[in-house]
Each structure stands twice: as C-alpha cells, then as structure tokens.
Amino acid sequence: RFMIKQVEQICKTSRENVKSHEQGQGSSWSSLKDQIYDMFVLRLVSCVQLASKLSLHYNIVNSDTALKFLQSLKYSYTKQELLESELAVLKCLHFQINVSTPLVYVELLLEVLGHNGCLLPSKPLHQMCMQLLDFSYLTRDSIYDTLLKIAIENSTPSKLQVAKFLTVKEDFMLLAVGIISTGVFILNPGHWKQVVEQLNYITGITSQSILEFSYAVLKHIVGSATP
Length: 227
Prior knowledge:
Low-confidence stretches: none
GO biological process, one term: reciprocal meiotic recombination
Number of domains: 2
Strand content: under 5%
Protein name: CNTD1 protein
Order of helices and strands: HHHHHHHHHHHH
Organism: Phaetusa simplex (large-billed tern)
C-alpha cells in the first residue's frame, strides 16, 4: 500500500514539475525512477518493521536488527535515518496501517469457536480457510453474482438491486463466516450444523445467510448447480 501511494505522489509531483518547468518527459521519468530506486530497500525494511510491530508484538524487528540487515547489504544508513524512514511510511499512509482483512476475521472467529467448545481440527481448518479465501478472491464476481441471485430469487437483478448489494460484497464478517462454514463442510460435515449455529450466535448473521454463502462458494468449486 505504501509503494502504491508513494509512486502516485512522486508521479503527481513529477507531472507538476514538468508543467511548471516545461521539461522533457525522458529526463522527468529518469529522475522519477532514481527517486524510487534510491530509497526502495530502506522503505521496504521500514514496512517490514511496522508490520512486525503490528503482528509479532514481543518479537518485533527492532532498529538494531534492521540496521544489521542493511549493513549486510552494504548500506550505511544510521538509526536516525531508519526512524525517519518509518515516519515517512506512516505519513504517506496517513498513519492508517492497521487495516483489517478477511483473514483477521476468520482467525478471530476460529479462536472464538475453539473457546466455545467446538472441537475442530484447527490447523487443517485454518489451511482450508486460507485456500478458500484465495479461491473466493479469484472468483469473487461469480460467487457474489450467485449470492445476489439467491437472495433476490431472480436470475436478472435490476441495477438498483446490484447497487444495494455492494454493502454485502464489502461485509468481511459475512465473508469470514461463509468461508469457515464452507471449510467445515468440506473437512468435517458432521460438525457443520453445530458450527453454523455457533457462527450465528457469535455474529448475529442468520444461519440462512451463512448457508447461502457456503452454497455459492461450493457451487463454483464443484462447478455444478447442486454441490
């Protein structure tokens, strides 16, 4: 996310400079590449450091470790430059670095299910959920198109229905419960009903909605209308 935003900012500044100084495009692009190239490794290390602070808590990649790594690559950055680089990344992202993902929701719900006494094979289920999340993103439009048609009981939704359905596509909690439900159904169908009831109790999402999401995912996995 940082690299995308930084490149956008550099390109914007470069375009403004070209307009104001009427420079040639070739020299401007060359300067732009140099800016990105010169700071890339340092910024990359800063991103890893920030990610470690969010995820590892007690075993973060501290400044000393980062400096040793940079020195092993023949870079002579100081600790002050490293701190300033972290701050530059934070500013570029407007300090919004702890962005939730569907995987966070899945892992949290799996922990709650385990705490509530659902005896599930945690490691195989987690791996299956990871694979299903990948699959759901690769076939995202198809899955949600199926889900919409199920919800409205119509194969030709109107533009208004499609527009209203956007909130469903952005609901990470619905995606998470649907992924877990599908994973349990594949690995251990005998526990599926209990897990769906627990997910309904934990999240408030109806069992019917969970069932419909699982159906949509399974339909595209199997490639049949009747999974």
